[in-house]
Amino acid sequence: MSCENNMTRYSHILPHTEKDVNADTLWVWCYPSVSAELREVLLSKCCLRQDSRGLHTFVFGQFRRTWYYISTVEVQEPTALKKVTHFSIVVTTKDFNPEKYAAFSRVLCRMYIKHGSPVKMMEGYIAVLTKGVCQSDENGSFLIKDYDVRKAYLAGSVKDVVSQFGMETIILYTALMLKKRIVVHHPQVEALLEFTRALPALTWHRKDWSILHPYVHLTDSELENLRTCTGYVAGFVDPEVSNRSDLFDVYVNLPDSEITISQSAKEAMSMGKLHKDIGLVIVQSAENADRTDGQIIKDISIKTREILANLASLAEECENSKITLETLKQRHFPPATENFLFHLAAAEQLLKI
C-alpha cells in the first residue's frame, strides 16, 4: 500500500484545544467533525484542564477502535498565538504507531506556533494525505515511509518487563495467551504507556495491539468501551481501579512490582511445569545482555508456536478439528497443563463447544 493510501485510510481527525491566559480551555478547531462522546474523552486526556505542572507532552490511547495521539505544548512568547498559554493537537487514526504520530504532531505544532492559524496545519495535513510527506526547512519534515508498524510493535521493551517481574512475567504471558483482562496501575501516565505497550509482544504470533488501552479513566463511557472487549491490557492512573475487581483477571501494581490474579481467574490461570518451562525461556533470554528485545520476542514466539503446533496437532485428530476436554484427558497431561491447553484451545477457537 502506498504512503498516500496509508494516510487516507488512517488519519481522520485533526482537532486542537487551547488554554488561554484566563486558564479557560477551549475546543478551538476540528477537521472533520467528532462525536460529543469522543470529544469529551479527548478533552479528559489532553491535560489542559489540569494544573500546568501535570503537563504531558505526548500521550496516546484507544477508544472505540479509534487511536488518539495528543501532543501538548506550552507557548513561549513571542509567537503568533496571542493570549494562548498552552495548546494540544490531537490526531485520531485507525493504526497503532505512537512514534509516527508524535513526529507528525511535532511538525504541526511548530507550524501552529509560527503562524497562529490552523490553515498552515491543514496544508501540512493534506500534503501528508496526498504525498505521504510534509517538508519544511523551518518546521521539520515528516515522511510516512519512515514509520513501519513493526518498529512500533518492537518499540516497547519486553526486556524491561522481565527485568522488573522476573519469573512472574509468566503470569502476564499466560493471561495474554488466554485473552484475559489485564489492568495496570501507575500514577504516572508516561510509565503506563511505556509498560503496557510492550505486553502484546509477549504473544507476537497474534501481532494484535488492538487489545491495548494504555490510558483509561474510570468513566462510564470508557469502562463501557472496555467491557465490549474479550481481553485487554488497560492502564489506569487512578489507584481506585485496584478495588474494581469486575474490570480485571490480573492486576499489576507497577510502582510496587506486584501482580495479583483475581479469585475468579485462578482456576484458568493455575500454573504447572509447562508454565515454569516457558517462564525459564523468557527469563533466560531476557537476562542475556547480548540479546535485543526483538531476539527475546523471537525466543518467546518459538516456544509459543511449539505449544500452538501441539494444540493444532491434537485438534486435527478430533471431529471437525475441534478439541474436547475428553481429548485432553486421554493424553494424561499433568492437571495444570491440561487446564492451560483447554483454556488456550478456547482462546484460539479450537475448542468444541
UniProtKB/TrEMBL annotation:
One of its GO terms (biological process) is regulation of early endosome to late endosome transport. One of its GO terms (cellular component) is late endosome. Residues 1-353 form the UDENN domain. It comes from the Eukaryota. It is found in: Late endosome. One of its GO terms (molecular function) is small GTPase binding. InterPro entries: FAM45, Tripartite_DENN. Keywords: Endosome, Guanine-nucleotide releasing factor. Transmembrane segments: none annotated. PROSITE patterns: DENN. Belongs to the DENND10 family. PANTHER family: DENN DOMAIN-CONTAINING PROTEIN 10-RELATED (PTHR28544:SF1), PROTEIN FAM45A-RELATED (PTHR28544). This is DENN domain containing 10. It comes from Oncorhynchus kisutch. The lineage of its organism: Eukaryota, Metazoa, Chordata, Craniata, Vertebrata. The gene is LOC109889785.
